[in-house]
Amino acid sequence: MHDGAAVEDGGRAARYRDVFAVGEFRILFLTHLVSIAGDQVARVALAVLVFSRTGSSALAALTYALTLLPELVAGPLLAGLADRYQRRTLMIICDLTRAGLVAIMAVPGMPLWVLGGLVFAVPLAGAPYKAARAAIMPTILSGDRYEVGMGVTYTALQVGILGGYAAGAPLVAWLGPEKALLLDAVTFVISAALVASGLSAHPPAAATRLPPTKLAAFRSLLGLVWRDRRLRYLMAFGCLAGCYTVPAGLAVPFGAQVGAGTAAVGLLLAAHPAGAAIGATAMTRLVPPRRRLMLLGPLAVATSAVLLPVGLVPQLGIMVALCALCGLLSGHDAVAVATFTRIVPAERRGQAYGLALAVVRATQGLGAALAGVVAQFSSPSTSIAVFAVLGVLAAAAIAVGWERVRPHGATPAGSDRPTRSGR
Description:
The chain crosses the membrane at residues 27-52, 58-82, 152-175, 233-254, 260-281, 293-312, 318-340, 352-377, 383-402. The structure is a single chain. Helix 7 packs antiparallel against helix 8, helix 7 runs antiparallel to helix 14 (262-285) and helix 16 (296-305) packs antiparallel against helix 20. The chain is built from 20 helices and no strands. The protein is an all-alpha fold. The chain has a single domain (16-414), classed as Growth Hormone, Chain: A (Up-down Bundle), CATH 1.20.1250.20.
């Protein structure tokens, strides 16, 4: 039994110290923070590198999209490795593979087509890592500690993005894109060392009950998600990020539109995660468990709606403030992810998380790519406003459907077993 798994919550809401008392959670938290910060530095470096060479908003946005779209393939197929193999070993292999790929990107004068291929390959190696981490979490945190742990992990994600973006632009301006990419490679090596020294083996749960092939497992998983309307709507909430994260993909072109420099791009990129870190903390610490799922719909609509004014007033200060508010409202994502993961049976969590992440990331990547095309023929600010309108309309439809199937009592995230409600 893993440390912390046997401790019951005693009916009270979990506290941060309950979560951080679990040693393996501290390792997962720290490696997540380090890797995410490095990734954001790399995204800034790549966007600046491509935009400086081509001057194209579409190509700059496409580069950002290439860091997300590969998970459409990797999530459903490769994430299932976390349900079949020892999870600690899998995480170490993934970290070292990504370190090598990013180090190759840092070679000066790398042709853009080669760079694009490497950018595509890095998320492929990351999908099994993320699935393994997500599958480990419910085994080391019980009861409400799991949801609080997911909330603080989501906060760590936003803090890592914030730190990476805030430091990324000055680092890229100071070191240059190539050396900044090397820094990202180092973060993966650090993560691998921490996982090797701080996690137990974590063999997969009940591997013998899984379908015999990856394709059969994927089809079975699709059936599981399709049959449970709660899972479908929770995944749909995540897909809305494809509309309200568009400013990240257009940060460099928007900075050029308003006459801002590279450092200002860092502000634009950091604003959303700064707000999201606060929003996730508020949702998991201040909002009672019974009300969290009720707020998903209204918050999803509001998250896109707050970006509408940028189409009328394209100014740097206003854009930064709107992105921060958007991030604050998007804190509901932490609850959606935790609920989705807990509803899925334990032996399918790795691939289920991979599937959900693949769909969400692919939506974000597609949104960034399409927004870049719209910006090329209009302006970055117009493109952001257009996708905000689409986000509001989609969120309203999802919210109506979710209200019909959501549990009206305690959140299903409090149990490892899926219930029949919403099926």
